[in-house]
Each structure stands twice: as C-alpha cells, then as structure tokens.
Amino acid sequence: VIVAERYQPTGQIGETEQDMQHWKDCLQELGHRPNHRYVTTEGTDHKVWENAPETVVEEISTLYQQVCNH
C-alpha cells in the first residue's frame, strides 16, 4: 500500500477530517497485514504516482521480484 503523506478532505463531497483519519487507519491496517507493505511517500498528496513516481516504480519492482522468486 503506497500512501500520500498529506490528506485533505474533499469538501465538495462532504469529507471531514474524521473521514480522512478513518481512511488512514484502514490503509495502515491493510498495509501491515501479512505479505503486505505500508509505504508513505513524503511530500505527496492524492496523486502519489505524479508526486513520487520513483517510489511507485521501486515498490512495483520489489513486489515483482518477490513474486518471481517464489
């Protein structure tokens, strides 16, 4: 699970800070399950793939290597 460092509620759809905290908690729970990884990309917002493409590519490559080695 690759997550953004900064989350902002989307007021247009009625999201609140509480919603954002619930979302963060869910992502952390998923990312810490067996055979999962939780990665926070520093200085990023919603579009992690645009703000930190090197991290996304690195994590995909790592996962690919793990799958190939099993």
Structural account:
- The protein has 70 residues and is mostly helical.
- The chain is 50% helix and 9% strand.
- It is built from three helices and two strands, in the order βαβαα.
- It has helices spanning 17-31, 48-51, 53-68, and strands at residues 2-4, 39-41.
- The protein has a two-stranded parallel ribbon with strand order 1-2.
- Strand 1, helix 1 (17-31) and strand 2 (39-41) form a beta-alpha-beta unit.
- The chain starts with a strand and ends with a helix.
- The model has no long low-confidence stretch (mean pLDDT 91).
Features:
70 residues, mainly alpha, two-stranded parallel sheet, 3 helices
Give the topology.
Blueprint: E1 2-4, H1 17-31, E2 39-41, H2 48-51, H3 53-68
Parallel strand pairs: 1-2
Structural class: mainly alpha
Overall average residue pLDDT:
91
- Contiguous runs where pLDDT drops below 50 for at least 5 residues: none
Helix content: 40-55%
Beta-strand residue percentage: 5-15%
Count the beta strands.
2
Major pleated sheet: 2 strands, parallel
Distance between the termini: 20 Å
Major beta sheet, strand line-up: 1-2
The secondary-structure element order is EHEHH
Radius of gyration: 14 Å
